[in-house]
Design a protein that fits this description.
With 154 residues, this protein is α+β, with helices and mostly antiparallel strands. The protein is built from four helices and seven strands; from the N terminus they run ββββααβαββα. The protein has one domain (14-146). It has a five-stranded antiparallel beta sheet, with helices on both faces. The chain has a two-stranded antiparallel sheet with strand order 2-3. It starts with 13 loop residues before the first strand and ends in an 8-residue tail after the last helix.
């Protein structure tokens, strides 16, 4: 597991969670999900990076949040593409497909945004919202550290 300071962008893959600050409120059109209301809050989106490029996907998300990219491919792109959104922290678990387990652990603690980021699995959502960074950040770290079957880096 690695946090915000990690800069590796190679082809290694695994699971990641983006902790996103959102200086809303705003109603966003999110692809086929339609309009979703986002409050001024903190959000955590969990995804996987096992496709081509591995964790380079996280760098793509950063570019989108910084306004350096426009293309929207995934639900999270609609959130990150809004000027009120910014990536505060990234937590990664290398070499383990624990996306749904981490998303489930977060959904047990925080409010879910229904169906968000979960169109290719049976999860209720891969995006949760929280009122404080401290509680959300600590829970994201814990979810990545304690998810069974994971392989993380200190």
């Amino acid at each position: 597991m690695t946090g915000e300071g990690e800069t590796a962008t190679g082809a290694d893959g695994g699971t990641y969670t983006l902790v996103v600050a959102f200086d809303g409120p705003a109603t966003l059109a999110v692809g086929a999900l339609g309009s979703i209301e986002f409050d001024a809050d903190w959000y955590a989106y969990t995804g996987s990076a096992f496709g081509p490029g591995g964790f380079a996907r996280v760098e793509r998300h950063r570019e989108l949040a910084a306004g350096e990219r426009d293309a929207r491919h995934w639900h999270v792109d609609y959130l990150l593409g809004h000027p009120a959104a910014g990536i505060e922290r990234v937590v990664r678990t290398h070499g383990a497909d624990v996306e749904c387990a981490v998303a489930g652990a977060l959904a047990a603690e925080f409010d879910r945004v229904p169906a968000f980021g979960a169109s290719d699995c049976d999860c209720a959502s891969h995006l949760v919202g929280a009122s404080t960074l401290e509680s959300l950040g600590a829970t994201v770290e814990r979810a990545h550290e304690t998810t069974p079957g994971q392989a993380h880096e200190p």
